[in-house]
Amino acid sequence: MFNIKVYTLSLFFLITTAFICDANLSTIEDEMQILRMFYQEKELVISATRHPKSVSQVAENITVITAKEIERMNAHTISEVLDRVPGIFLRGFNHDFGSPALMTIQGSNERNIRVLLDGITWNQLANNSPETISIPVGIVRRIEIIKGPASSAWGSSLGGVVNIITKSAGDTKIPSGTVQASFGERDTRDYRAEVSGLAGPVGCYLFGARQKSDGLRNSRHFDNNSFFSKFRIPVSKKINAIISMGYTEPETDFGENFSGKMNTRTFHSKALIEARLNDNLDFSIAAYHFKQKSVLSFHNTESRYKYDDQTIGGNATIVWSNQYHTAVLGFDIDHGELGQTEKYSVPNFSQTSKTDPDIKKWALYANDTIIIKDLSITPGFRYDYNSLTGSFISPSIGATYQIGKESILRGSVARGFTIPPLPYVSGGSLTYEQNRSLDSEEIWSYQGGFETAAAKYLWIKTTYFFHNLHKELRPPTIGQPRFTNHGKTRRQGIEIEVQTIPFYNFTCFAGFSYAHINSSEESGSPNMYTYDLSIKYDDKKTFHAELFGQYTWWNIEDRASLDSHYNTFIWDLNITKKLDFKTKVSSEIFFTAHNIFNGSQYVQMDRENPQRWVEAGLRIHF
Description:
8% helix, five-stranded mixed β-sheet, 24-stranded antiparallel β-sheet, Maltoporin, Chain A, 622 residues, globular, mainly beta
């Protein structure tokens, strides 16, 4: 059962923190507008139904992070950004420069989260893990996170969806852009440049970046080059073609304790046509190609694991809307292939496995957003078919009710699924055999909560969730060398976020997330929770500063054998100062002190986080 004691203490902690910050609040009415921005009509999100809709009509538990917020964080990776979101738990993330990480949402398994970049699935076919180190954080316009199953819109995603949307092609004749460079300890460097504008009638966006570090701890080297481009071509007044292409090549050395490194090469491209057929009807069709090669090798042996992913797919969507309805009908199709070569080698023994399984998928989905005064109802339905586990039906229904101008009630019920990783079903590996009878994991999810600015000076958001998972995958054991479906897990918990309006240019934020996991297996992590705290200062002109701290509890049962340490907050300080040169070019210097109190937060000895380290840089907007 849900731990009421933990919830009560945490709620008291968050509200007390917020009211301490509230001691000298201004009562100026126009500052209340800052809170109302969380659900004003002009703020649109696309992830819930795959078509832009007002955030006040979104029944799902969703978090949105903008490019401006990412810039203020001085973030180098997507993982650094996601680490600040209540409800997301990062595994393997050690706060290092270029640190790889896998994520869970509300206590789910990593394979249950689907990461998308402009609609292209980023999960690896070998294990369904959504590694984001190959996505340059500088190209991100916004990140939309759905916590809980999103299968009625996106298919295989019973844990949630992280939808990363890239920056738009330019629409002005005079080019604009940003040049940025930062330098930190251990030869840590991050160079970026982007430019957007019109080349004749064609809108363009170009991005390039170079990242490097000698390793902040235990010789964990990191090296990455990335490039991204996007072009918008006007076919007619009502039709646009958008073409994008990107390439990254991160190389991560896991250091002297792990004695291995990962090389990844990722290429992706997409062509999209958007058409406004009439005032009520929109149509889009897209095709994409995703190719990723990952090689894990070890310094002292000849062991080597190579995974070559390739997916070709497309989708089409038609949207009909009027004053009361926004109906979406869509079709997805893709074909994924995995070339998997694994070699395990130690003195006097060597073993190699080569497989090349593939998967074909298609799906039909439909949803509607029905507006009845202050009530918004969103029914959804999706039919998926894949060549490994067959068909699955994902219904959902959600509703929001707006109480006055400052409060919204939300609730949703959804059925979701996740397809097993490709080699689990077809191909196998060195450590397990294929299991052709594996089925998709299934979940029924119930979430409800409210969001309000009715409390004086405060914005408050609370969500309760209950997820009932069936057919959970269990790993191979002695005598059973295959993955099997025989597990059941219940996950329930709560998320709370509290934020004040600015007072003397200060803003306070406190977030808490808790997940209690009741598994049919005796081992596991029954409780996980995080605290997020921040104090920001912004004079709206030339100076911005933020102190952010996070505490994470994974509750790993064998902490002693893994030598885990995570009993302190990790605090980071970001400072940005604009330089006034009386020109059209805007310049600013920024400074970040990471882990300023030398906290420890890691789950394994070979993944110790760095102690305090600092960096500084210059950013020029033109």
